Amino acid sequence: MKLRRDSTLIAYALRFLVAVAVLAGTALGRDAAFRTIYKFRGSPDGWDAVGVPAVAKNGDLYGVTFNGGNSDEGTVFQLTAPQTRGGVWKEAVLYDFPGNGQQSPSLVILGPDGNLYGVNSTLTIFELKAPALPGGAWKYVSLHTLNGNSDGSAIQNLVFGADGNIYGATELGGNSCGCGTVFELKRPAQNGRKWPFRVLYSFTGKPDGNEPFAGVTFDQLGNLFGTTFRGGTNDWGAVFRLKPPTKRGGAWTETVLYSFDPNNNDIISPEGPVTFDSSGNLYGTTPTGGDLNCAGGFGCGVVYELSPPTEKGKDWTFTSLYAFQDGNDGAVPGGYMVFDSRRNLYGATQQTGRGNGYSGAAFRLSPPAGETSVWTETTLHKFIAPDDAGCTGGLTWGRWGHLYGVTQLGGTGCQGLGCGTAFELRP
User: Fold this and answer.
1) Which helix (H) or strand (E) element contains residue 63?
2) Cβ-proximal residues to 379 (8 Å cutoff; 6+ apart), any chain
3) Residue 415: which pLDDT band, with cuts at 50, 70 and 90?
4) How far is the C-alpha of 112 from the C-alpha of 130, rounded, in Å?
5) 399, 423 contact by CB (below 8 A)
6) Which of 14, 25, 255, 402 could disulfide-link to 390, CB 3.0 to 4.6 Å?
7) 363: part of which helix (H) or strand (E)?
8) What DSSP string runs through 29-52?
C-alpha cells in the first residue's frame, strides 16, 4: 500500500474521495480547536498545497502549491501571521513558476540566511532569494539539477545541517540498482559561487536499504537518520543511520538499525520521516500493519519507537506504540510528527477506509502514565470533505504554540472540490 508522494496522483485520488463524500452529504462535526486560516483559489495563488509549511521566527508560514498559479506550474506562498491570536492571516504569492524548466515545486524550507530553498519536478534544487526591500520580488536561482542517474532522482525532503549545508535523500537513482542516495549540497564560501554537490551514500538494496522515501533527519550529534521503503534484511524496509566521517572529505558510514519484518504483525514498508525525543529515542510510522482486521487485512498503520542500546554493540529496541483502527482515528499515518514539552507526539493520518466521509485525521499520542505501558491516542481533528481533505505533509509547531499544516483539497473553487487549505490547530 505505497502512497507515493506523486502529488498529481494523490490529488486525483483525493478528489474522488471528496466527491463521494460531498454526494453522500457528509455532516460530521467541526472541532473548536481547529481553524482554516487560508483557502487557496487555484489562480493566481495555486492549488494542491503539499508538504509541511516552513515556519519563520515571527510565525509567518511559507509553503508551495504543486499546481495552479498563472501557468498552472505551482507557486511558492507566504502566509503572514496576524498580530493577535485568532486574527486574519494574509497570503502573498512569492514566486509563480513559469514552466520551461521551472515547474511544480514539491517543498520549501527556510534557510538560516532568510532565503527559501526547495525542489521542483525537474530535479532542480533551487533558492528563492529574499528581496532587499519589503515588497520587492523574490529571485529564483537554480543551485543544482540532478542527473537522474548517479546523483539520484525524486527528492522527498531537504534539511540544513549545522554547517549551513543542505542535505537530503533521493528515492531512486544512485548505483546500478537505482536504490536511492543521500546527498550534500555544500554552501560556497562566497555568495554567487556554485554549490558543490556530493553523494554521501548510494543504497544497494539488500541489506542496507532501498528507496529512502521519506528523506533524512539530523540527531543532536550530527548523524543522519532515515527510513527506506524496501530493502533491509527482509526486503520490507529499514531504519538507517549515516555517521559523518572523522576526517574532512572522508566517507560517511551507513548502519541499518532495524529491518522491518512481515512476521512482526505485518509492520512493514515505512514511508514517513523520523523524529527524536529529548532522550534520543527515534519515532516513525508505517502505513500498514497493526490491527490486521483493518484495511482488508493489511492493517491501518502504526506509530513505532526505536530506542538506542544501553550497551555498545547491542541492537536498537523496536516498540509498536499505537495501531490505528480506522474507525474514528484514521488510517495510513505519515508526514512529519512533532513533540511537545510533555512528550506528547502529534501527527496526521492520510486516509480512512470505512466510508466515514473524511480523509484522515490529526492525532495526539500521549505517553504512558503511572504503571501502564500503553500510549493513548486522541483524535484532534477529522479532515472532512468538502471543508478540507488530504493532509499528507504532517504537522509543525508555529506561533502561539499552535500546530500548522496544509491540505491538498477542500476549501473553495477547483470545480467544487476545493483548491486546498492551510490550517491552525490548538492542541
Assistant:
1) strand 61-67
2) 328, 329, 330, 361, 362, 363
3) confident
4) 12
5) no
6) 14
7) strand 358-366
8) PPPTTEEEEEE--SSSS-EEEEEE
Mean pLDDT value of segment 331-340: 94
Beta bridge partners of 224: 218, 242
User: What is the helix (H) or strand (E) element at residue 23, kind and residue range?
Assistant: helix 7-24
State mean pLDDT over 159-183. 95
User: Residue 36 corresponds to which cell in the numbers above?
Assistant: 482554516
pLDDT tens, position by position, 43-95:
899 999 999 999 999 999 999 999 999 999 999 999 999 999 999 999 999 99
Mean pLDDT over each residue of the chain, to the nearest integer? 88
Report H helices in 235-298: none
Residue appearing with cell numbers 545541517: 161
Give me the residues paired with residue 98 across strands: none
Rounded to whole angstroms, the Cα distance separating 60 from 37 reads 12
d(CA 269, CA 288): 8
Verify cis geometry, omega within 30 degrees of 0, for the bond prior to 53: no
Cell reading at 266: 505485518
- Is a pLDDT exceeding 90 seen at residue 192? no
The percent of residues above 90 in pLDDT, for the chain, comes to 69
Between CA 156 and CA 83 the distance in angstroms is 33
Picking from 170, 241, 245, the residue whose alpha carbon sits closest to that of residue 210 is 170
Tell me the average pLDDT across 118-130: 93
Flag whether pLDDT at 281 surpasses 80.
yes
Residue 124: CA count within 13 A, CB half-sphere: 17
Question: Are the C-beta atoms of residues 257 and 316 closer than 8 Å to each other?
Answer: yes
Question: How many residues belong to the chain?
Answer: 427
Beta bridge partners of 218: 224
Cβ atoms 329, 266 nearer than 8 A: no
Model confidence at 215: pLDDT above 90 = yes
Report pTM.
0.91
* CA–CA dist 282, 225 (Å, integer): 9
pLDDT per position as a tens digit, 129-143? 999 998 899 999 999
Separation CA 362–CA 349 (nearest Å): 7
Q: Which amino acid is at 138?
A: W
Contacts 24+ apart (CB under 8 A), 193-199: 195/143, 195/144, 195/166, 197/144, 197/151, 199/150, 199/151, 199/152, 199/174
